[in-house]
Amino acid sequence: MEGGVWGIVIIISAFMIQFIAFGINGSIGIYNVEFLEHYDTTAFDVSLISSINLGIFLGTGPIASYLMDRYSHRKVVLVGGFMSSVGILVMPWLPGIPYMYLFYGVINGFGGSLSYLPSHVLSGLYYDKYQGLATGLATGGSGLGITVGPILIAYLIEVYTWKGSLLILSGLSFNVLVFGALLRPPPPRTITVIIEKSNVPGDAVIKNQLKKEENGNTVVPDIDNNLTLSLDIPSLKTKNMNNPENVQRYQKSYLHKLFRNVLTNVDFVIYFVNNIFWNFGLAIVLAFLAELCVQQGISKIDSALVLTLVGLGNFLGCIIGGVLSNIQRLNGIFVFAVLNILSGVCLILITIIPGYTETIIFSFLFGLFTGMVLGYLLAITGEILGVEDFGDGVGVIMIANGIGAFAGPVVAGHLAAGSGDLSNGFIVGGIFCIIGGFIILLIPFRKCFLKNETDLDISKEKIEEFQMGPIKEVSSGPKPTLVVPTITVDDVSDGKDIDDDAPQSSLRKNSFFKQVNLEDEQ
């Protein structure tokens, strides 16, 4: 079974970590009314609390990604869980809103990022064939957290006041340390090839027909009179994020690798901009939907219920999006764009069609569509960058999420500062989501018009059978030593295909030799 028992444990742990993180950070809008009454301040000042928190929470992804490379997923999550708890614990005793910017906005937000990203990435590293489903299930924790969080917080405020509820949430946040302790790195992967002995004396040929199997290894069909060999191929290595020595060996610096492999990828830059736009609208909903409902004459408890339905739709959408991302016949980029546009339409309809029933329906649909977007998020990141730069790509995408999450509530709060009406902010957020949907369509259009500039996909499914140089026998005996020429990624750079009929000298332009001990199986 792909992933094994520990793969299931990782998914459950990631689910619970995201449940706690998003259940608290995504429901901060419930406190806006309480802060306005207690501190006698403006809606704009209060909006900065959630803006800074969500901006730091989602925007410090590269820092969390670097720390994962330098240390481990488990250590980073443990530190993040502690910071999140402390940031909430001191809030009841803070004398003013500006102090909340620091403790809840910065400290809790950064702690949430350190908790969320490692669990999110690790859930995908345990799986290959079912990666989309695994990450979709793990991401479902964020949707369920937003579902339960508003109702739970509203109940705690009513029973224990807003200060007492924050102390309880701080204790709940400490449970991230429990689930973070269960995170452990995935086992290393190997590539298995068959070496066929040629009838020509002193010559042997490696034929690599890389076909994916359920166990994660790659093998070729049965060949008579062959030998089985596992090779460590650096050019196709699996990144071990728990070992800093590997980082030092294969890259001169983290920033250099990030710029070379991620930030110069045009498709990824388009994807980055798209994430800014749709997170702009999502953050407005999380920060101000409950307050908008109160402005429309809905009670505080019912307003929390509306935000809960957004979370319920988000939870279901994450699972549905994860399932759909595993269907190869669906164009993931196109589906992602349509979901962006539909979520923007729902966001606009929440304001232009008033009424409690209508607000419930459109809020649920908005949560459903954005949840499906989240279910596709990692799958599209992996499709654009590949496994090697997957973790770094997720970290950079979180910067885009943070920019949008910070800007959305600030703009909505500024628009409402004069009139006090939040409707204009929601309409602007919906327009941004729609624009984001059209922006990501530039990726397939670009590939359509620039076919000669598409990047070479070196995934195992797309590497056809190719032939390497001859194996040179160095010594004889019961365990003969063979020198196996292998091909580095540089050999197939610049979009050049591997041709079976290509001269061997061209294939060995940047190759290296590896000595391998074989034992003939008679």
CATH superfamily membership of the largest domain: MFS general substrate transporter like domains
Summarize the main sheet.
Answer: 4 strands, antiparallel
pLDDT averaged over residues:
75
Helical fraction: 55-70%
How many helices? The count is 18
Distance between the termini: 32 Å
InterPro entries: MFS (IPR011701), MFS_dom (IPR020846), MFS_trans_sf (IPR036259), Proton-linked_MCT (IPR050327)
Membrane topology: Multi-pass membrane protein
Keywords: Membrane, Transmembrane, Transmembrane helix
GO molecular function, one term: monocarboxylic acid transmembrane transporter activity
Structure write-up:
It comes from Patella caerulea. It is a multi-pass membrane protein. InterPro entries: MFS, MFS_dom, MFS_trans_sf, Proton-linked_MCT. Residues 10-448 form the Major facilitator superfamily (MFS) profile domain. Its main location: membrane. Strand 7 and strand 8 form a beta hairpin. The chain has a four-stranded antiparallel sheet with strand order 5-1-2-6, with no helix packed on it. Strands 7-8-9 form a three-stranded antiparallel sheet, with no helix packed on it. It has a two-stranded antiparallel sheet with strand order 3-4. The two termini are 32 Å apart. Helix content is 64%, strand content 8%. By secondary structure, it is α+β, with helices and mostly antiparallel strands. The protein has helices at 4-25, 32-39, 43-59, 61-70, 73-89, 97-125, 131-173, 176-180, 244-250, 254-263, 266-295, 300-324, 332-352, 356-385, 390-419, 423-440, 442-449, 504-507; strands spanning 191-197, 204-208, 211-212, 218-219, 226-231, 466-467, 472-475, 481-486, 512-517. The longest helix is centred in the N-terminal third of the chain and has 43 residues, at 131-173. Helix 6 (97-125) runs antiparallel to helix 7 (131-173) and helix 13 (332-352) runs antiparallel to helix 16. The chain has two domains: 4-185 and 257-451, Up-down Bundle (Growth Hormone, Chain: A); 191-237 and 464-517, no CATH class.
